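Table S2 (text version). Query chain:
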Amino acid sequence: MTHTHLVLLGTSLLGTAAGLVGVFAVLRRQALLGDVLAHATLPGLVLAFLWAGGKNLEALLFGASLGCALAGGTLWLLGRYTRLRPDVRLGVVLSVFFGLGMALLGQVQDAPGAGQAGLESYLFGKPAGMLQRDLYWLTGVAGLCAIAVFAWYKELQLVAFDAEFAKAQGWPIGGLDFLLLGLVVLVVVIGLPVVGVVMVSALLIMPAAVARLWTNRLSLMVALAGAVGGLMGVLGTLTSACVPFLPAGPTIVLTGALFLITSLLCSPQRGLLVLWARRVRTGRWTQSDSIQPDKEPGGKCEEHA
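Corresponding structure-token output:
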């Protein structure tokens, strides 16, 4: 396997895993959780770098996981023992953990391997530096996410669309939220070397947002989000390979943005061009033409109905 094929396979696996998990995070209105956890990995990355004495992949992934766990625990404590609103809690944890990480990064910036070939690649991503063992990690995480989503599909579906009903029926809402949090952590941690801290949350949000614009059926939404995430990885990597000095991480995210803009314009039910054509044909707006915000976390879903 050539290095180009290795990078293409790795980015497609990461995008697919992020798409599968991101659907339930978006429907549960926890999309920004990925952004918070991604920024919270930075202190763990720097401390793991200092502890290992260099860029050891396993140590850095462990440090990133530890940072995610501490951030998640802090969010849980703030939600349980304070009256802060959810958006305020997310903003506080993101800023504090990322600020701590940047402060620690400034202390080790002169250390060998802490520059462009080291920790800086985790800030902005560097798919071209992917190794064979990185592909093994990506394959394992993508497979684990797919298995978890299909094994707990009905439970995640019920919690995403009607958490109060699920709680009244005795379903372990806390455990299912913890499962979703764990899957988000896995995608965030393994996605850091590919797209970096700043943009890994886009892999969780964009495929789900694109799929939501095209269908109301959850099973199709999950499959479509996984496919869009994989295409983001492949097309973004190919574009970066064809254009000199164009980083692959930002290109992957921009590819997702192109998918999202196209969906906003052309999706059959919510596309702006479709709604405009319907207005021209009928001469007026109807109630179905209006884009209304969802009343439930995920809006109406045919499978749930």
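Notes on Table S2: Residues 3-289 form a domain with the ABC transporter involved in vitamin B12 uptake, BtuC fold (CATH 1.10.3470.10). Residues 295-299 have pLDDT under 50 and may be disordered.
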